[in-house]
Amino acid sequence: MDNRRSTPHCNNNRHPLGTIPISHRNFFFTYATASGISVTAGYHRLWAHRAYCAGNFLKVILAIVSTSAGQGSIRTWCRDHRAHHRYTDTDRDPYSAHKGLFYSHYGWVVIKRKREQTGQVDVQDLSNDPIILWQRKHYIPLFFLTAFIFPTAYCGLMYGDFAGGFIWASWVRLFMIQQATFCVNSLAHWAGDQPYASRLSPRNSFFVALITWGEGYHNFHHEFPVDYRNGIRWFHWDPTKWFIWLCEKVNLASDLKRFPENEIQKGKYQQIQRQLELRCQEISWGTPIDELPVWSFEKYTQTVNNGHRLLLVDGVVHDAAQFVDQHPGGKKFLLEYVGKDATRLFHGSAIHAHSNAAENLLSTMRLARISQTAKI
């Protein structure tokens, strides 16, 4: 009797649950990419925002393949998305970020919402497009064909694994695409930076861009939705932008819209200015000059004679008592000008001009302002 342990036969055509063969994996990612980009380039940038023009051939391909993502018809998707842009962060926004991360990600799908709760938008162009109307009319059979029948049959006929195709290329792919797309509604309104505007919640997130074929530069997109790009620099991860650009090169697309660069930069620097203003408010700049009490020059000299170490610079009285012993140039020059006008000395006509830091420090010592007409 042979007591050696037998080695199980390894069948490369079979795979345990949770493991996907290379052949399936290639088709899974290829079909998932095609489904995802057909939504971002078709539903979103072509039909919702009219960021470029496409010929009928490209429109039909996008209309069919995008159906495999299971996100509703073109008209319904674009209607909600236009409402999202027009009523961002309000109750009329169908997936408002202000209702919480879960709601904006998936809650709006499962929670029944009355049609009139969504803000009104113009969809006349969508209602007049025969390809959109055709896709809407046949959406259910197209969805089952592209989302389940085709990927299952392909994997079955090509790899002899109908079950694997049904699980991976159909259900898992469908789930991942929907979750990635919903991240634009949720994470892209919650995590990231706001280089163009901060009045509303949209943010730029490289992570979201990475999993949504370039849709993560959401702060830019909400400010300049007509632009066919989301990532405007060559190094920004935006496969959808590259796909549209390539379609133009082979005459499948045209009129790729770009928002004027000057206006983009204008918005960017306005946001920088707003951020600087907010930071500025956190810093003490001393009492504003127009809020200082008004003294006469006689009151200034009289106060000095009463033992106060005051300096007059640019018509403003400064209390230098706490700074005299810390003056980097020594006490001598300060004490010599106590009770006098030290403007020329401070600005360098006598010795040297003081630094910007010295001027900032001086502003914290303001006590009063001099008026020639003021009385003691």
How many alpha or pi helices? 16
Q: How many strands, which pairing sense, and closed or not: the largest β-sheet?
A: 4 strands, mixed
Mean pLDDT: 89
Overall shape: elongated
Describe this structure in words.
This protein is mainly alpha-helical and 376 residues long. The chain has helices at 22-48, 56-67, 74-86, 101-110, 124-127, 130-137, 139-159, 162-185, 206-211, 218-223, 239-249, 261-280, 297-305, 331-337, 343-346, 356-363; strands at residues 53-54, 253-254, 294-295, 310-313, 316-319, 366-370. The strands form 2 sheets. A 4-stranded mixed β-sheet has the order 3-6-5-4. A two-stranded antiparallel ribbon has the order 1-2. Helix 1 (22-48) packs across helix 2 (56-67) and helix 1 (22-48) packs parallel to helix 8. One of its GO terms (cellular component) is endoplasmic reticulum membrane. The chain crosses the membrane at residues 139-159.
What order do the helices and strands come in, and which of them pair?
Blueprint: H1 22-48, E1 53-54, H2 56-67, H3 74-86, H4 101-110, H5 124-127, H6 130-137, H7 139-159, H8 162-185, H9 206-211, H10 218-223, H11 239-249, E2 253-254, H12 261-280, E3 294-295, H13 297-305, E4 310-313, E5 316-319, H14 331-337, H15 343-346, H16 356-363, E6 366-370
Parallel strand pairs: 3-6
Antiparallel strand pairs: 1-2, 4-5, 5-6
Helix pairs in contact: 1-2, 1-3, 1-8, 7-8
